[in-house]
């Protein structure tokens, strides 16, 4: 799956990593619903760090369609809340 982190670029992630990412996504959703700004910030950074660590960066000139778009590290709680679906940022 091709994942874009807004403002950073794209990475290719194997489907096998989505169990780990979904756990962080679930935590993020709970923190957003609770209005926990500190928890939200920590978990968003952990989620983005995991995507960077587990994914293979695509070249800057690659124009692959992104199947999943994640917010930038400096996104606000309200901005991320607007991006959410019922499943959080990551479907499944």
In short:
This protein has helices spanning 18-34, 37-54, 77-83; strands spanning 2-5, 9-12, 56-57, 68-70. It is an alpha+beta fold and 92 residues long. Strands 3-2-1-4 form a four-stranded mixed beta sheet, covered by helices on one side.
Highlighted features:
92 residues, four-stranded mixed beta sheet, alpha+beta, 3 helices, globular, 46% helix
Tell me about this structure.
- By secondary structure, this protein is α+β, with helices and mostly antiparallel strands.
- 46% of the residues lie in helices and 14% in strands.
- It contains 3 helices and 4 strands, in the order ββααββα.
- It has helices at residues 18-34, 37-54, 77-83; strands spanning 2-5, 9-12, 56-57, 68-70.
- A 4-stranded mixed beta sheet has the order 3-2-1-4, with helices on one face.
- The longest helix is centred in the middle third of the chain and has 18 residues, at 37-54.
- The chain is globular and about 40 Å long.
- The mean pLDDT is 91.
């Amino acid at each position: 799956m091709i994942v874009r982190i807004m403002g950073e670029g794209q990475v290719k992630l194997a489907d096998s990593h989505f169990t780990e990412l979904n756990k962080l996504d679930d935590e993020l959703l709970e923190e957003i619903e609770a209005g926990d700004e500190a928890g939200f910030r920590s978990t968003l950074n952990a989620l983005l760090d995991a995507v960077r660590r587990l994914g293979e960066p695509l070249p800057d000139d690659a124009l692959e369609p992104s199947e999943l778009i994640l917010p930038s590290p400096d996104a606000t709680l309200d901005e991320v809340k607007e991006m959410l679906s019922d499943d959080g940022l990551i479907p499944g």
